[in-house]
Amino acid sequence: MRYGVGAGRELHLAAEPSPFWSTAPYVINILLLEAEVKHGVFGSPADDYAFELKITFCVRGVLSPLLSNLVLDELDQELERRGHRFVRYADDSNIYVRSERAGKRVMESIVRFITIRLKLKVNSEKSAVAKPQERKFLGFSFTRHAEPKRRIAPKAVERFQERVREITSRTRGVSFEEVVKELTVYLRGWRGYFGFCQTPSVLKGLEEWVRRRLRSYLWKQWRTGHQRFVELRKRDVGLDLAAQTAASSHGPWRLSASPALSVAFPNAYFDSLGLPRLAVG
Question: Which of these, 81, 96, 119, lies nearest to 11 by C-alpha position?
Fold first, then answer.
């Protein structure tokens, strides 16, 4: 059982299996939203005339890590001074502690530091103390094994499937070649990031799921039973199997896992199109 503490625009603690966080059973998540700065306005009717400047952080792209580093550098120094084990990337940060009690104590202390010293507002609804496997960090989470492994966070898997569904949607009105081209670019980039996980079975499952989406897409292109029979036969599917599959009343998704479509569109077929595999090795 492990926990940690987190802070950032969404500061959140989850642990990667390594010597120091193997003894940190709890995670604290802190979400920073706004900074409020009060300052005198020189040349105003009175020298002590003050205005309130409220800055809301809604920054994306390359500026987000830069501004996060500028704003949160003092937080890093404070955590180092206190001797906490932590990791931060841009506005995502994790602090690792040994117990839930310690996590709550550190959470209270860090929130106080952020609000009073850094003048940042903390979203209490999205800040929490929890076990690392219950939280996500930069799209990753951790398994519940005695020696935790990096796994892809469930929400990251959901976003992956949503994007693949968008690309392979038949209502887009694009050719199959264009679908494969877009999918290849997306899969290559996604694999380059999430291939860092230590659960290859998840990658293999998603890889198989993508191929089923493509088989289903191709099956829908053959609109009639006769056309489906002819196309299956062209792809070396046996006479009886082709006839049985073409006449089936099952939907495209179910048939995408059928023996006939596996013969017609084997894994090697998608490899020949340049579609990258997610599970390496």
Answer: 96
Distance CA 148, CA 37 (A): 42
Other Cβ atoms within 10 Å of 99 Cβ, number: 14
Distance (Å) of CA 73 to CA 13, 127, 136, 212, 237: 17, 20, 22, 47, 63
d(CA 255, CA 63): 47
Q: Which DSSP symbol is given to 134?
A: G
Phi, psi values for residue 251, rounded to 5°: -75, 170
pTM over 0.90: no
3-state helix, strand, coil in the chain (%, to 5): 50, 20, 30
* Choice among 45-49, 126-130, 227-231 with the minimum mean pLDDT: 45-49
In 94-248, where does DSSP find H-type helix? 100-112, 154-167, 176-194, 200-221, 225-234, 239-246
Mapping DSSP to helix (H, G, I), strand (E, B) and coil, where does residue 56 land?
strand
The whole-number pLDDT of residue 182 equals: 97
Given a contact cutoff of 8 angstroms between Cβ atoms, the answer to whether 10 and 126 are in contact is yes
Which position has the higher pLDDT, 126 or 119? 119
Helix (H) or strand (E) holding 124: strand 120-130
Cα(39)–Cα(181) distance, rounded to whole angstroms? 54
Q: 101 with 19: CB under 8 angstroms?
A: no
